[in-house]
Design goal:
The chain is an alpha+beta fold. The protein is built from eight helices and twelve strands.
Length: 241
């Protein structure tokens, strides 16, 4: 079955996808084929209503308090991903940028950071601060991650805390699996990360979403109209801590 689909062109695969879903009887063989396509061809965006809800929560609590959009050029995001193809995780940290919100990218094989591994090991990890729409590489003279964390908590973090109810928890970073990023086979457009809110254990927390458009990957399939959509909103994985 896998060899069959690998031999199809992009156009043929799209047509095969529509045909299988439309005509499927839910027998075991067709179910296996659907699962294969879902895992290897269709992306997994969040529902539009979830994105809308997240924006509404953000605007209600944080409108105009700090920056809520970050753009990185197509060339730059593909470059830094290409430089870190062997890493397992991409972490996007929230940082204080002169009193405003900023982000940095950290590529690592570590899934969750603790006090013993929070500082970056430049022999095995890389990091980039987003400056404008470009990624500025970390080096041995860059600020320590401990200082970055403290500046975030004591700086723009105080604005974030002010908008949350009792016992707030700041989102320090968001973790995404690189294997999911590789499914896009390179981004075709500049990426705009949007800051939204989600509710976790009845508390608001910040997270990120990004709308991805590409011509080769199906993001939505509307069964009723048999329409394929080549764009969708994606969240950025697990909130930490």
């Amino acid at each position: 079955m896998k060899q069959k689909f690998e031999e199809l062109s992009c156009k043929e695969l799209k047509e095969e996808l529509i045909t299988i879903i439309t005509n499927m009887d839910c027998d075991d063989q067709q179910l296996l084929e659907i699962r294969y396509l879902m895992a290897n061809y269709i992306s997994d965006p969040i529902p539009d209503e979830e994105y809308i809800r997240g924006k509404e929560l953000f605007n209600t609590n944080y409108s105009n308090k700090f920056r809520d959009e970050f753009i990185i050029t197509k060339k730059e995001i593909n470059k830094i991903i290409g430089e870190n193809w062997d890493k397992k995780y991409l972490h996007i940290f929230f940082i204080d940028d002169n009193g405003d919100l900023g982000i940095l990218f950290r590529f690592s094989d570590i899934e969750t950071f603790s006090p013993t591994n929070f500082e970056i090991d430049l022999n095995n990890e890389t990091a980039y601060i987003l400056r404008g729409q470009m990624a500025e590489s970390f080096n041995r003279s860059s600020p320590s991650f401990f200082n970055i964390k403290q500046n975030y908590k004591n700086g723009v973090g105080t604005k974030i805390i002010a908008g949350i109810d009792s016992n707030p928890v700041l989102t320090e970073y968001v973790t995404y699996q690189m294997r999911k990023i590789f499914l896009f086979n390179g981004f075709e457009q500049d990426l705009k990360f949007e800051v939204i809110c989600v509710t976790v254990e009845n508390k608001l927390r910040l997270t990120l979403t990004v709308k991805v458009k590409d011509s080769d990957r199906v993001h939505h399939f509307a069964m009723a109209t048999r329409a394929l959509f080549y764009e969708g909103y994606y969240d950025l994985g697990d909130l930490k801590p």
